[in-house]
């Protein structure tokens, strides 16, 4: 995702709100909102971190609460039932050992890795597929978001400083 495009799209609203909204996006999350907040909007790292964590947590509760009812509703149609059966079987075959062995700690580590295809949105999906209880999933995902936020904030601060030192 092009950061200049996001900065332009959100330039007409206050930067604090833009950071929260970017952190809510499934593709961006705080992995993109923190660098945009610090480098693009000039916010201090603590503010960028805090707003990004808040924004990244906003979709978590609705996702955890509604993934199962939506899945159950969609399973009434054969196409969706086939899709969810395939998804659950495939996910359990590939990842069940890790999630069964490490449980909520494994979920927190998964969410906390600041890599593509990890994060709160995918963590909610994993919590649903593996049948995590709401409270355990919420705590694990929050812990993962904090860990990812700290990593991304640190990398942004030192990465930007290093970049400016080398190229200016």
Briefly characterize the structure:
The protein is mainly α.
Percent of residues in beta strands: under 5%
Q: Biggest sheet, open or closed, and with what strands and sense? A: none
Radius of gyration: 18 Å
Count of domain modules: 1
- Poorly predicted sequence stretches spanning 5 or more consecutive residues: none
Q: What number is the mean pLDDT?
A: 87
Structural class designation: mainly alpha
Record field, number of beta strands: 0
If helices are DSSP runs of H or I spanning 4 or more residues, what is the number of helices? 8
Alpha-carbon distance between the two ends? 26 Å
Question: Roughly how much helix do the residues carry, as a percent range?
Answer: over 70%
Give the ordered list of helices and strands: HHHHHHHH
Looking at the structure, what is the overall shape?
Answer: globular
Protein name: Putative membrane protein
Keywords: Membrane, Transmembrane, Transmembrane helix
InterPro entries: Sm_multidrug_ex
Organism: Candidatus Methanoperedens nitratireducens
Describe the structure.
- With 168 residues, the chain is mainly alpha-helical.
- It has one domain (3-167).
- The chain is built from eight helices and no strands.
- It has helices at 3-9, 15-24, 29-40, 45-57, 60-74, 78-112, 120-129, 134-167.
- Helix 4 packs antiparallel against helix 8.
- The longest helix is centred in the middle third of the chain and has 35 residues, at 78-112.
- The chain is globular and about 50 Å long.
- The model has no long low-confidence stretch (mean pLDDT 87).
């Amino acid at each position: 995702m092009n950061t200049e495009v996001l900065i332009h799209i959100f330039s007409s609203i206050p930067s604090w709100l833009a950071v929260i909204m970017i952190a809510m996006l499934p593709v961006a999350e705080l992995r993109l909102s923190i660098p945009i907040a610090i480098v693009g909007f000039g916010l201090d790292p603590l503010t960028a971190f805090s707003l990004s964590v808040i924004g990244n947590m906003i979709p978590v509760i609705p996702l955890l609460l509604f993934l199962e009812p939506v899945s159950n509703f969609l399973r009434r149609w054969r196409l969706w039932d086939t899709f969810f059966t395939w998804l659950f079987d495939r996910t359990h075959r590939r990842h069940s050992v890790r999630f069964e062995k490490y449980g909520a700690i494994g979920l927190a580590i998964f969410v906390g890795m600041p890599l593509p295809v990890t994060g709160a949105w995918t963590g909610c999906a994993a919590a649903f597929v593996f049948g995590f209880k709401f409270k355990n999933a919420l705590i694990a995902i929050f812990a993962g978001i904090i860990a990812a936020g700290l990593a991304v904030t640190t990398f942004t601060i030192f990465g930007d400083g290093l970049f400016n030192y080398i190229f200016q």
